[in-house]
Every structure is written in C-alpha cells, then in structure tokens.
Amino acid sequence: MSATISVLQLKQLNGRARGQWIDVRSASEYATGHIPAAINIPMEQIESRMEDLRPDVPIVLICQGGVRARQVVRLIEPCGKDVVVLEGGTSAWIEAGFPLVSNVASRWSLERQVRLGAGAMVLLGVTLGLTLNPLWVYLAGFAGLGLTVAGLSNFCPMALLLGKLPWNQASHCKAPAPPADRACCS
User: Fold this and answer.
1) Are 111 and 29 a contacting pair, CB within 8 Å?
2) What does the buried/exposed string (b/e) look like for 167-177 if buried means 16 or more CB atoms within 10 Å of the residue's CB?
3) Maximum Cα–Cα distance for the chain, whole Å?
4) Per residue in 15-32, is it b (16+ CB within 10 Å) or e — as a string?
5) What is the dihedral of CA 71, 83, 87, 38, to 10 degrees?
6) Which of 23, 33, 109, 168 is the most buried if burial means most Cβ atoms within 10 Å?
C-alpha cells in the first residue's frame, strides 16, 4: 500500500513545502479542473516523462479518486522516487471546498463524452432490439466493436468526431498585447 496524504494536509503544505504535485489524469480532465500548482503528466505518459519528475523533492500524485495515482506509484516507486498519493484525489479536494483551476468553458473530458456516447448507443441498440426489431442489437455490437478497437489501437474515431464539435473547440481569443511603452519584464 502506498503512502497517502489527505487533502487537508496537502492544503496546509500549499506554498510552504517543497514538492512536485503531479496530476495523472488525461489532459482534458485536467483542463476541466485541477488543484492549483499541480502539473499534468497523464498516466500513459509517466514512464516516458520520468525526466520531468524532480529527484530532489517528494512527489504527490493526484487523479480523480486515487485509483490511477496508486497505479502510477507502482510505475515510479522502483526508480527511487519519494511518492505519496492524494487520498480521494481531486474529488476529495472539491468536497473539501478548496479552489480549483479550471477552463473557463467547463467541459466534460473527451473520454467521458466517448463513454456517454458509446453507452447511449448500446442502451439504444438493446432497447430498440428488444422492442422494435432485433436488428437494432447490431448498433450495440457496433459500439462494442468500436470500444474494443479503440482500446487495442489507442485510436478512437468517436473521440475524433466529438473533438470537432463546437463545445470541444479551443477559444480563439487572444490576450491583448502589452502597451508599447511597458517593458516586458519590468
């Protein structure tokens, strides 16, 4: 069992203790809301980004509820890193009423949108197959096939299509340029 830290303990350390807070959720999950000072290294990238982990400070691993963070501990602990897991993850942080840094457009992660879409296809296919025409069951089979291919290949056409929808587009606003008479680093 990996060492843990509570959200209250982590909040008390904020700004006073050296450490590296790593949020191992997907980039889209991270964008929807993360703990201030946490940086994003998604779980599937952690092994290839070991150089990004500072060797001189303890690492706090954060995910939504703690499960993925515990999985990441098993990947990086053998490398001699001082690692703890945030108990309850971002969910516990939110429940405690602590602030989050989040995208202005509160979005569902693309992964969550795919799960909803695939689940709806399965539910619709089975329901219509049982009530109207058995051929509708093929819709459920198609969703299952798509999820299997996505899991095996790490390519998800549904995510690709959902990513093109307006609510998943990045804002194209640009911050105003500083006045010409102000030096950049004054």
Assistant:
1) yes
2) ebeeeeeeeee
3) 72
4) eeeebbbbbbbbebbbbb
5) -100
6) 23
**pLDDT tens-digit profile, the chain (186 residues):** 579 999 988 888 765 566 899 999 988 788 888 999 899 999 999 999 998 888 888 899 999 999 999 999 998 888 877 899 999 999 999 999 999 988 755 567 778 888 899 999 999 999 999 999 999 999 999 999 999 998 899 888 888 888 888 877 765 555 454 444 444 333
Could you tell me where the DSSP H helices lie in the chain? 7-13, 27-32, 67-76, 89-95, 110-131, 137-153, 157-163
Helix axes 110-131, 137-153, angle to 10 degrees: 150
Torsion of CA 73, 76, 77, 80, to 10 degrees: -160
Burial class (CB in 10 A: 0-12, 13-18, 19+), 148: exposed
Per the listing, tokens 């963070």 go with: 69
Contact 47, 22 (CB under 8 A): no
pTM of the model as a whole:
0.62
CA distances from 6 to 59, 65, 84, 90 (A): 14, 12, 10, 11
User: Known catalytic residues?
Assistant: 63
